[in-house]
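YM 10:42: Putative Beta-ketoacyl-acyl carrier protein synthase II sequence, as discussed on the call
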Amino acid sequence: MTGRHAVAVTGLGVRCAAGATPEALWESLVLRRSATRLHAFDAEGAVVYPACPMTDFDPCGHLAPKEVRRADRSVQLAVCAAADAVEDAGGLHAAPGRRAVVTGTGYGGVISQENGIGHPDVLYAPRLMHNAGAYWISARFGITGPSLTISTACASGTHAVGEAMQMIRAGCADVVVAGGHDSPLTPTTALAFGRSGAMVTECEEPGAASRPFDVGRRGFVLAEGAAFLVLERLDLARARGARIHATLTGYGRTSDAHHLTAPHPDGAGARACMEQALADAGTTADAVTHVNAHGTGTELNDIAEAQAITAVFGPRGVPVTAPKSVTGHGLGLAGALEAVITAWSVREGLAPPTAHLTRLDPRCELDVIHTEPRKIPDGPVISNSFAFGGHNACVVFDSPHA
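YM 10:58: structure's back
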């Protein structure tokens, strides 16, 4: 790690059904308060499934009415979450050319795309662009350094955070606004995932529809939202007296090269990704205090990830939590949202429980936290994202005092 700039997390911002602030999100997680409800994906009410919509979202505090009309809902969410993160950081303390933004999204402006098919207006193309969020954030905060967008399905947000860290390490930027956003709650998206068998379509108790690692799982629950972090060079953050939530110390990314949608059955790519992230952080598996699992609630993903975690840490060798039991699965948002959650866990010294886990799948030899939050000591915490396409990304956070 010699010669690399250390990276601090100085700002956090979220917009999702489980909370419009990191504090509200954390409360939902600690109390196992699910954001899932029955949701009509179309105006006629013909497509109704469990989902995690953000019903009270209002972008007007951050976007003028004209800007709202020009931006897809996913971008509106992104601008608001990024603005909160920047405010939390106390601003961007670097020259414009030393600032950067990295966004992750799986679906881009899919609401605008679906609504405009057959009758696009003049703003159709810019509203659906995957990089529209990066544009709006860079324009809002005077970011004239690197501006990138990553789309690796459900790993997009984690890849965005990891690549942002690499920018700072390499000296390409001093501060980076990094995160993910998606608003995929369209009827076509819901029907597609439902027919694939990956998403919950029927559930006697909608609030408990997302059940990672449970024998009664039925798939993931679709969610929308945005989550952003402000990352800074640690020495510069300390020099200005910034409040530091956590440090970002490691990043791994691998590919299964196995199947378009299914993970490698023995979790080989996921295992390699975790090992790479730990090596990058300069730490070992026995030092890790907590794993934030990808934990979608699909059988194939749960079992493959459990095997990978067991291979790295041993059977029940480390406390594991699965926030998607509360937040649902926001696709390109998910990894960034869980990066915020993981940084907050490090800050609080607490791992939140997994909701709705009544009977652990015996094929998952994991110590899944599921009743009350668990105290964790200072030390590295890893957050996993394992996506369709075999795209794997992991990031490691640690205490700023470590």
